[in-house]
């Protein structure tokens, strides 16, 4: 079975300017983006738990009709965007995940009152 979609997920600090830039750039590249507010936690050097407010951004590309080379370009695009946003928000790292989805289905919803 051929891959159906490529999906990218990026977690960035919850800063409006960074979010707006990521939304603008990812929407231009992929046609849209989904945003979730999320929380992260980590242990600092003193053993204290530190909580962070973040945004998780999701974008995907329908791979039907695209050449394999687009995957590499998308990956480079997202890595460059992560580096840029990381520098702007003074982060040591930006979490970025790529996933190839092999099967996806869009479930059509009937209009109200329509019999299935």
Layout of helices and strands:
Blueprint: E1 5-13, H1 16-30, E2 34-43, E3 49-62, H2 69-88, E4 95-101
Antiparallel strand pairs: 1-3, 1-4, 2-3
Characterise the protein shown here:
- The chain is of the alpha+beta class and 116 residues long.
- It has one domain (5-101): 2-Layer Sandwich (Alpha-Beta Plaits), CATH 3.30.70.
- Helix content is 30%, strand content 34%.
- It has 2 helices and 4 strands, in the order βαββαβ.
- The chain has a 4-stranded antiparallel beta sheet, with helices on one face.
- Helix 1 runs antiparallel to helix 2.
- The chain is globular.
- The model has no long low-confidence stretch (mean pLDDT 89).
Keywords:
single chain, 116 residues, Alpha-Beta Plaits
| H/E element sequence | EHEEHE
Low-confidence stretches: none
| Rg over alpha carbons | 17 Å
Proportion in helices: 25-40%
Q: For the largest beta sheet, what order do the strands appear in spatially?
A: 2-3-1-4
Gross CATH architecture: 2-Layer Sandwich
Shape: globular
Count the strands? 4
CATH topology: Alpha-Beta Plaits
Number of helices, counting only DSSP H or I runs of 4 residues or more: 2
- Structural class, judged by helices and strands? alpha+beta
CATH class: Alpha Beta
Would you tell me the overall average pLDDT? 89
Assembly category: single chain
Distance between the termini: 29 Å
Number of domains: 1
Main sheet makeup: 4 strands, antiparallel
- The percentage of residues in β strands lies in 25-35%
